[in-house]
Amino acid sequence: MSDRQEQEGERRPEPTKRTWGERVDLALPLINLLIAIHKIVDEWVMPLV
Q: Tens digit of pLDDT for each residue in 1-49?
């Protein structure tokens, strides 16, 4: 199996090393989306329940 991988030139991608600041920058859009969904649920769905 390793011979076939060498022939095809396949390599495992190098793991990317990120700092905590970069990780937070990547997570911010997801956090903002979750906050927006929470606000919509609070304002529009909860009064109907």
A: 555 555 566 788 888 888 999 999 999 999 999 999 999 999 998 888 7
**Residue type, position 47, single letter:** P
Which DSSP letter does residue 12 get? P
Query: Max Cα separation, the chain?
Result: 64
Which runs of consecutive H residues, i.e. helices, occur in 1-49? 2-8, 20-40
User: How far is Cα 4 from Cα 8, in angstroms, rounded to an integer?
Assistant: 6
Q: Could you give the CA distance from residue 4 to residue 10 in angstroms, rounded to a whole number?
A: 9
